Amino acid sequence: MSDQEHKDKEMENDTPKQEVENGTENINDSQNIENEIIESEVDVLKDELGKEKNNFLRLFAEFENYKKRTSKERIELFSTANKELMTVLLPILDDFERGLKEVEKSSDNVLLEGVRLIYNKLKNTLSQKGLKVMDVKQGDTFDAEIHEAISQIPAPSKKLKGKIIDTVEQGYKLGDTIIRYPKVVLGN
């Protein structure tokens, strides 16, 4: 082979190598562009996922608050319903106590036992439903937040000045809520 032929052959061999290298570079460039596009799409999707996750967490928290609020409202509704019923029954209980005191004055023991039995049953039933008598004693300190003063009389002793002398009407609580304040007489 002559030098010329040899050079021509090398040139033939070089040309395809360059074309292959150029083609490979083009492929690499297009893959890099595709990878960049995919990465930018992934970033966008991550951002959207983060926003949706944040929205989900907020919605979940709102739902939990809603459940707590409705549960609390339902409990308050039941206690309010009991409160209204108890408030209506308190004058009846007062009348029953007055009637029991009058029956105790009579000599009819059978009647006394019958009335006492019914009174105790009513009182126990109301206490099972959460009604509690507010214990107010003579000599207790008057508190305007838990007592209702209906009158003042001269104190029998200096110790009772500004203190509770007598309870005219019992006070009652339903759970921790006062549904009727005790009506008291104060020493002056």
Automatic annotation (TrEMBL):
Residues 1-34 are annotated as: Disordered. The keyword Cytoplasm applies. It comes from the Bacteria. Residues 1-20 have a biased composition (Basic and acidic residues). Coiled coil: none annotated. It is found in: Cytoplasm. Residues 25-34 have a biased composition (Low complexity). Keywords: Chaperone, Cytoplasm, Stress response. Belongs to the GrpE family. Homodimer. Participates actively in the response to hyperosmotic and heat shock by preventing the aggregation of stress-denatured proteins, in association with DnaK and GrpE. It is the nucleotide exchange factor for DnaK and may function as a thermosensor. Unfolded proteins bind initially to DnaJ; upon interaction with the DnaJ-bound protein, DnaK hydrolyzes its bound ATP, resulting in the formation of a stable complex. GrpE releases ADP from DnaK; ATP binding to DnaK triggers the release of the substrate protein, thus completing the reaction cycle. This is Protein GrpE. The lineage of its organism: Bacteria, Pseudomonadati, Bacteroidota, Flavobacteriia, Flavobacteriales. The gene is grpE.
